[in-house]
Amino acid sequence: xxxxxxxxxxxxxxxxxxxxxxxxxxxxxxxxxxxxxxxxxxxxxxxxxxxxxxxxxxxxxxxxxxxxxxxxxxxxxxxxxxxxxxxxxxxxxxxxxxxxxxxxxxxxxxxxxxxxxxxxxxxxxxxxxxxxxxxxxxxxxxxxxxxxxxxxxxxxxxxxxxxxxxxxxxxxxxxxxxxxxxxxxxxxxxxxxxxxxxxxxxxxxxxxxxxxxxxxxxxxxxxxxxxxxxxxxxxxxxxxxxxxxxxxxxxxxxxxxxxxxxxxxxxxxxxxxxxxxxxxxxxxxxxxxxxxxxxxxxxxxxxxxxxxxxxxxxxxxxxxxxxxxxxxxxxxxxxxxxxxxxxxxxxxxxxxxxxxxxxxxxxxxxxxxxxxxxxxxxxxxxxxxxxxxxxxxxxxxxxxxxxxxxxxxxxxxxx
Length: 415
Ligand SMILES: Nc1ncnc2c1ncn2[C@@H]1O[C@H](COP(=O)(O)OP(=O)(O)OP(=O)(O)O)[C@@H](O)[C@H]1O
Ligand SMILES: [Mg+2]
What we know:
By secondary structure, the protein is an alpha/beta fold. It is 39% helix and 21% strand.
């Protein structure tokens, strides 16, 4: 089952509070702390100390927890090829994504357990009353200098309440260099879905994107920071290319031979694997975020609204009904076209591709491939480019939002 979007969960929370008792005291003056200043989208004064009716917030957090519970139950019902494998219960797989961090492990009942958290945060100016309120409502927050960073899905609840900007530690698959709290915040957010190792040296595998030409050193930094964090939490940590993780999750019955494509928020990752060995890996630095931003710009609407419409109603097999839908179709077409063309050029210039005696499958994962009609559109456009390898079929991953974490688990849990 495909998870409801964060905005979906959020809408549920916020609908219940559309007439909420939230008032904001905005007479606290400005903050001169440079990088830690609140970044607000609109021209109204930045949100300062929230005076919140505590019961109302309790209610919303309670509803949020219910949504998460349903989410976990649906995970437990999911079936996937990892079930066929003998995976250690001590192993953990982690998808470090631009928009979400997802962990996967095998639970006591031998079923897969996944946990997911929004990879984002919202900055509030510090006040004791705000801090007490966050603590009382068991919200995820961190005091950073003169600010409170509310992170994960709770950060999005606050961003929507304040109509402010949700910050992210990552962009285009990597830690952001211009976000002063990126490293600190990604560790906090990751800790929500990956606890300390139950035994020192338990195996953990986390996803990394393919290196970008000319920016290889950025990936070295990103990978080293995460590895150091997981090692510090007691794990024997290794990394896996995101496209290869998709292959390990979805192509067990094909001896891990085929093409894995993960189309996420920040980028697309592609891996051609032969018997689990990555032969070609590369990335395209565009994904769902680029679609949202481009559509919002041309139809003069907010990115948040475009994202909600995209996630909740877009069907690429149907004729667009309005400008916004038309723009979504156009930018989806553009992304798929760039992707299939880069698959064609990259594969064509790769020397010594393995000789295959039969066509191989291509499997699509990541949130961007979820809309109705996506697979058919992708397959049609793929068939129009030249490829040195014959593709038997284009498939959708069983659970596109969790395939990378599951593949990382396969990598961590099998010798
Ligand atoms: N139902 C849906 N329909 C369309 N798009 C969706 C849906 N659900 C999520 N998305 C989009 O998928 C993207 C997130 O996908 P995913 O979680 O795979 O990315 P990520 O792993 O965090 O990012 P990346 O791999 O690029 O670092 C976002 O752009 C989101 O808007
Ligand atoms: Mg991803």
